[in-house]
């Protein structure tokens, strides 16, 4: 049955070959005329043919495998030869850095990301590199901890320090605000081993003290805000002809209120300098909750010279 099918297809091949290449294929044609067909060759020839087919196929497979191997080796080799990028110099995960390690991130090498430390917490500030790199205004912070400089304005690398001892609660609150800024805007890298974290990454006494002063600053700020509501600041202006004028209005000192008040000099306890505030002239005293003259009788509030008790505006 298979033989029949073969001879049938051989015939169709004959007519095709005969029509396509009648003059050049004498040998083939005579073979075909004799009823010889490539599929109908002797067993020895067939064995020889299948043997060579086998070798040809094997060679093709070998060439393909070798090609694939060569491709994968060259590909792998290509991947292994990488140019170091900034990503490579970034530590993976949170880390503890020594001062020396941090100093490499001082903005002097364009291939190394800029880091800074504030109260021992390290941030990757490479996004804002232009502010911190060598020669820029805020390079004092790059590759080191210069925490006090955030509030003292000491921008010399030689003079700057990481020691916040001696900063006031208000100044430490300023440090905390910068810390919040870096938390929000930049990537936290890890901790600096030194004044604020030990070699295990645990907070030191210096950090605990710093946090206590920050808390004091927060308490003072709340008190200050409450006081500003009670005694809002005055408006003020100055010109050469009239000199200084202070006055009260319903929005002076940034506090919106129903009352206007009158200007008074408010002295901070134990201090000589004063601040112009607006005080109520009616209702109970803000301090004692008693009386009906507002804060007119508060002993820490002084009238401006030449200004009447109920004057809303005073020329100084
Ligand atoms: C103690 C005083 C100051 C400190 C500690 C300080 C610190 C900084 C720092 C760390 C940055 C970079 C912020 C970032 O990474 O995006 C910055 C940016 C800047 N600062 Fe100051 N600064 C001070 C005073 C001033 C003053 C007085 C001025 C203006 C007269 C000023 C104007 C600017 C400006 C324009 C920028 C760039 C803002 C931007 O491009 O987004 N700074 N400052």
From TrEMBL:
Pfam families: Cyt-b5 (PF00173). Residues 97-193 form the Cytochrome b5 heme-binding domain. The chain crosses the membrane at residues 53-73. One of its GO terms (cellular component) is membrane. Residues 9-30 have a biased composition (Polar residues). InterPro entries: Cyt_B5-like_heme/steroid-bd, Cyt_B5-like_heme/steroid_sf, MAPR/NEUFC/NENF-like. Residues 1-43 are annotated as: Disordered. Keywords: Membrane, Transmembrane, Transmembrane helix. Belongs to the cytochrome b5 family. MAPR subfamily. This is Cytochrome b5 heme-binding domain-containing protein. It comes from Pocillopora damicornis.
């Amino acid at each position: 049955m298979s033989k029949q099918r073969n001879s049938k297809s051989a015939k169709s091949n004959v007519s095709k070959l005969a029509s396509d290449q009648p003059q050049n294929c004498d040998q083939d044609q005579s073979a075909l005329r004799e009823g010889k067909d490539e599929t109908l060759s002797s067993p020895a020839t067939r064995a020889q043919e299948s043997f060579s087919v086998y070798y040809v196929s094997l060679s093709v497979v070998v060439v393909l495998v070798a090609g694939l191997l060569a491709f994968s080796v060259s590909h792998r080799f290509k991947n292994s030869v990488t140019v170091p990028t900034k990503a490579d110099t970034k530590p993976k995960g949170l880390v503890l850095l020594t001062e020396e390690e941090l100093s490499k991130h001082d903005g002097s090498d364009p291939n190394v990301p800029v880091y800074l430390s504030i109260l021992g917490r390290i941030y990757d500030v490479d996004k804002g590199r232009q502010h911190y790199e060598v020669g820029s205004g805020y390079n004092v912070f790059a590759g080191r901890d210069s925490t006090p400089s955030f509030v003292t304005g000491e921008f010399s690398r030689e003079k700057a320090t990481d020691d916040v001892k001696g900063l006031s609660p208000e100044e430490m609150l300023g440090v905390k605000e910068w810390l919040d800024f870096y938390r929000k805007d930049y990537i936290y890298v890890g901790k600096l081993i030194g004044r604020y974290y030990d070699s295990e990454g645990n907070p030191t006494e210096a950090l605990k003290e710093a946090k206590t002063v920050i808390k004091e600053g927060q308490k003072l700020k709340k008190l200050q805000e409450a006081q500003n509501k009670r005694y809002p600041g005055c408006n003020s202006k100055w010109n050469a002809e009239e000199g200084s004028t202070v006055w009260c209005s319903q929005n002076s000192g940034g506090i919106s209120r129903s009352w206007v008040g009158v200007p008074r000099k408010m002295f901070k306890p134990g201090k000589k300098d004063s601040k112009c505030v607006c005080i109520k002239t009616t209702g109970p005293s803000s301090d004692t909750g008693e009386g009906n003259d507002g804060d007119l009788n508060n002993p820490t509030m002084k009238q401006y010279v030449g200004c009447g008790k109920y004057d809303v505006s005073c020329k100084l």
